[in-house]
Amino acid sequence: MAMKRSDEGPSRARQAAKFLSVSVLSGVVLAGLALPGIGAFGLVAKGTVEGFDEIPASLKTPPLSQRTTILDAEGGEIAKVYSRDRTVVPLNDISPYMRQAIVDIEDARYYQHGAIDLKGVLRAANKNAQSGGVSEGASTLTQQYVKNIFVEEAGDDPEKVAVATQQTIGRKVKELKFAIQVEKELGKDRILNNYLNITFFGQQAYGVEAASQRYFSKHAKDLTLGESALLAGTVQSPSRYDPVYAPKEATKRRNTVLQRMAELKHITPAQAAAEQAKPLELKVSRPKSGCITAVNGAGFFCDYVRETFLNDPVFGKTKEARAKRWNEGGLVIRTTLDPQTQKSVQKSITDHVYQSDSVATAVSIVQPGTGKILGMGQSRPYGFGDHMTQINLSADKAMGGSNYGFQVGSTFKPILAAAALEQGISPYKTYSSPFRMPYPDEVETCGKTWKNSGGEMVQNENRSEVGPYGMKEATAKSVNTYFIQMIEDTGVCPVIKMADKMGIKPAGGGKFEQVPSIALGTEGLSPLSMASAYATFANHGTYCTPVIVESATGPDGKNLRVPKTKCSRAMSEQTADTVNTLLQGVVEDGTGKEAGLSGRDSAGKTGTTDERRAAWFVGYTPNMAGAVWVGGPGAKGVEMENITIGGVYHDKVYGADTPGPIWRDAMTGALEGKDAPTFGTVPMPGTDKGSGGGASGGTGGGAAGTSAGSAGDDKRGNGHGGRKPGTGGGKPGGGKPGAGGKPGTEPGAQPGGQPGGQTGDTTGDGKPDAPTTPGGAAQGVISGPGQQ
After folding, report:
1. What per-residue confidence (pLDDT) applies to 90?
2. What is the set of domains in the chain, with CATH numbers?
3. Residues ≥6 apart with Cβ < 8 Å to 326
């Protein structure tokens, strides 16, 4: 037992003497003796050193960080991700040349000494004293291994790494104590194996297997003599001897290793000379890690897997615990990604929106009843270059998405419809639905009654949209005033509660603003949130939380717990079936006709927002639900008028003419070869009047309304010749005219608005728009017929 003073413990001199005696008795001496100007009693000179006996004898070895492999639902690889590129291999899977080379150059007497090499220390101390600097070190492989453990445990924290590598006597003391323990517990071969798996070889390669793959594109067991010498030489200074960027220095270092092996008679001088004469003969495999390498445009799907792992408590109780587990890696994660769906999503995206366009698109597809995310993609790829991003435009902010999401326009109206139906409002309920009207004087909310103190107004897209309307035709034509009159009856609170039941929350966090304009989609939401919400209608009124991980195994091959979907009833089956009926009308003969699928039941809703800064189509079949957003990805957005997207010019962008076809093509490919079940629906005869056809005005005149019981066909010119105007009876739509074409000529048809309209005219009626949104929300949410 060390003699201690009553208040301060052993003196520094006694502490140093105690340490030296223990070192000698152990057959070793502190490697710090090799440092210039520091002798056995250098411990006393400066700094504080923990008493040797007080250092814990047990070294807690952290698991080595390794690659994590992310797979699709069929077992195909999506990407490999890692904090540190490492593949742990047993000693037998490492070339004998490599094992010998690292021992010969780093610690030639490794198998003859204990945890420290006394002869090596004395030799190094002598050389350092002669040179006046540190010309030679004396750390054994065991000590180097212990230091690497400290570095591995520090992770990517710069401060912790600095502490783990600082040249202090205190650290050397701990290093020695742990080295003695490691020698006793592991033995030489296991230490050598662990060292070769933990050490850094440069070029992001940790461990000899990763280094062998990086520099020579082969397994460590297949390394030749010269290749082994090259890798062994890089360990001393991976940047200085980097064979890719410093081939001359690397060659010199390789030849030094070969010479050393010959001196120790582990190879012949002839072998050394032959290898020294050879060029490096690298076959470099560049680092391939991270979601940027994901196949079929699944970079953001991959990133959502990472976000799920880092945020879901099932993977660890604390944020720090989850991050540590992810960084350690070695996981195999099987996801819900359906390869057929993902390929179809990506093809549709690239067919309709170019990466270099001023706007972007994001698409998410989920499976009703399971919550499985089947596909996720966007036109701006995952990355750091031009027209690339690391923001997942499909996700909420908390999961790597945009700060505020994107206003969803009229795609929110079915949520209001569901809330109204749940309150007993009949789908045949009619409202006067004038073209333009004040917001209600008062609307009930979850708290204080909202009052229209500013005389705020709301209007429809076109002057031809004049009621009365019932729910079916109002939904098909997306009549703003109808739904504002409806929210006056339902109140805001039931709508917010319905949204919550359907998993809809503001993408940026926080709570919904309790204003009646919520009916027109003024809140910023995410495509994944909207796809999952609409899946509720397809699933007979039951909402299921989105999930992305099917299964996962840890580095030991054992199964990990993974998040499971949670399903809960959001509305009655009757309500869901009624909404199905309403939204089928949208794709059959309403604003979403261009998005309809052939040969299977489909339903959906278009949406376009103020100044056309966002356009949406959200739709579903009984077996898939998907959401498509198109808009400016930045904070300011892009006004989508007189714009070219995917090589196609648009005088104005609508939910039907850009998001709709993206959804149609993505879903068509995803569903190819799959069953075509039918929706639950309810009988609901059409009650449309002939007084409000869809707007087509891109052909010189607004298309007249068609036969009773149908809505406009969402046909309009796109700046490339225009399309044929409608010819049915009734009043014309008021869309903005394009060039060419003739006005409707059937009885009751009238020419459209004056060419061009006035400044600030988004409706094409030749008059400036009026503000339409109260309560501080965005103004002028567009949702007229044929234009969503």
Report:
1. 94
2. 89-277 (1.10.3810.10)
3. 68, 83, 306, 309, 310, 315
